[in-house]
Specification:
- With about 675 residues, the chain is an alpha+beta fold.
- The strands form nine sheets. The protein has an eight-stranded antiparallel sheet, with helices on both faces. Strands 24-25-26-27-28-29-30-31 form an eight-stranded antiparallel barrel. A five-stranded parallel sheet has the order 3-2-1-4-5, with helices on both faces.
- Helix 5 packs antiparallel against helix 6.
- The longest helix is centred in the C-terminal third of the chain and has 22 residues.
- It is globular, with a radius of gyration of 28 Å.
- The termini are far apart.
Amino acid sequence: KNACFWREKNLYSVCLSRLLLFFSLQTFEKLLIANRGEIACRVIKTCKKMGIKTVAIHSDVDANAVHVKMADEAVCVGPAPTSKSYLNMDAIMEVIRKTRAQAVSLNVSICCSFLFSLSLQALEGVTFIGPDTHAIQAMGDKIESKLLAKNAKVNTIPGFDGVVKDADEAVRIAREIGYPVMIKASAGGGGKGMRIAWDDEETREGFRFSSQEAASSFGDDRLLIEKFIDNPRHIEIQVLADKHGNALWLNERECSIQRRNQKVVEEAPSTFLDPETRRAMGEQAVALAKAVNYSSAGTVEFLVDSSKNFYFLEMNTRLQVEHPVTECITGLDLVQEMIRVAKGYPLRHKQADIPINGWAVECRVYAEDPYKSFGLPSIGKLSQYQEPLHVPSVRVDSGIQQGSDISIYYDPMISKLITYGSNRAEALKRMEEALDNYVIRGVAHNISLLREVIVHPRFVQGDISTKFLPEVYPDGFKGHKLTDLERRQLLATAASLHVAEQLRSQRFLGTPRIPIAKSKRSSWELSVHLGDGIYPVAVSKHGSSFSVEVDGMKLNVTSEWNLASPLLSVTIDGTQRTMQRISRNASGETSIQFLGTVYKLQILTKVAAELSKYMPEKAAEDTSSILRSPMPGTVVAVSVKPGDTVSEGQEICVIEAMKMQNSMIAAKTGKV
């Protein structure tokens, strides 16, 4: 059923290949997974396929997590903070000894991977699933990796190749390079410890925040500065190498849709690359891998300008979040390949064997509010959760389930939603359908933003860069803007749903009810409040369909009207739409997810609407004198004290959320 794995032409070849693999390749009996969430679940799935027993580690708050339930064994290694549990080297080493695991999979930051790989060398007979310590250390240090890339004849970005000592030196270097510049953590990754500076003031501020984030996330506050390539694409090459000197490039991934230097939507292949550029990037990526004797799956990231000039950005020595799109178009299981390489087997494929079959798109579904800076973290319990696996050619990599908690301690990712098609248009259409059918309740999520991105004309045409989001939404993301037709469809569906509920509430199952009304009602006059408008809507029932008049136009709305289902499939004048009713109350207020965005409506009878004008309105709270954090997090610095006079725009405090530091500023001049 998995759309992206094993595209053999018949069942016989699938069974035969797996039987041959099972009997001919001995890898490991037991593997410990030093991670959590979707990536831990992903590794466990391949281990089960290969007949390898798994050991999961977990913090005390993750005792009921999905990866814990999936593994053959599970051991608690400490309290919630990652430094005391998932990155607690001493506790993990003790678990390895007790469970007698033969191999360890760790998919975290390069700095932690290096320390862990180093610690494993003290344990005889335990194999690290990944490259050796030399490669991790070399590629984990952005300064050293840049020098190695230059020596390997890989294109690099102009910049300062040493360590920046302080803010004054940062300003001097930035002036020499020429603005804009990128300040980044030497040991960093994942968008953490990175700031763009356009002038001296931003350079000083960027140096401060980047060094603090780098120290918090990687235990290393060293920074480097390089020229910022304005308006580039972010395209990366997946590499795979063994311990016998063989290395392959597995095509590219387009990762240009980003917010805060973190990827949001990825796809493979890229619409931008021609075969010559693809080959050149692939060959340089392999040259870099060979230069450090790399042996595992890894990713070499490049920035590509409008003229298809490409520059080395960094190499990630782990399995990337976006690896599923590569698996979809190549048919390879990258986790399986990593395990085979770690055991010492040579690669099974040659470069000529690596195909590009079809197109794959991945959307990162986060527990975030996309209306705040394109996504600030949200926490809570998943009161309802349903993955769109009934949609054809859909894959969901997740580590949560209904009832799971999204906490402040870990990354707010809910899942990776992947769709596959024979071409890009088919893959995008399936993604659109999958997002409409994804049910998430209890936390804010970014499905509205993801859906808007994949249907935007610029994205559909492939006209994208790392500035896509701020360019398309210069005033911030506001949700989907309804056309007149879409507005009428929403109003007609909401009114029909309201009437269907009214009719259901009049029925008692199994017991005849004494009729109060003289005759069965077949028409309703309603008033629907949507946004700044109030719309008269007339509804009449014909069997299971409703005829709805909105703006002088009649629409026919048909559905099974299964009001217990979180998904509502309706047909409006022949157009099929999948909607979700998020909430409702007795005063007629309802929230409906339509085209990815949640709209708030109030549906009243004509009489109730006329009387509602007499209802007093609640005055809005004046929050101009209050500094309220827009996200859950930790206060890591307070820059003022009671009695201080502050001016508008002045920093009040710093909030750290998901290892990103955010400066909170005063909205107006006043006294603390």
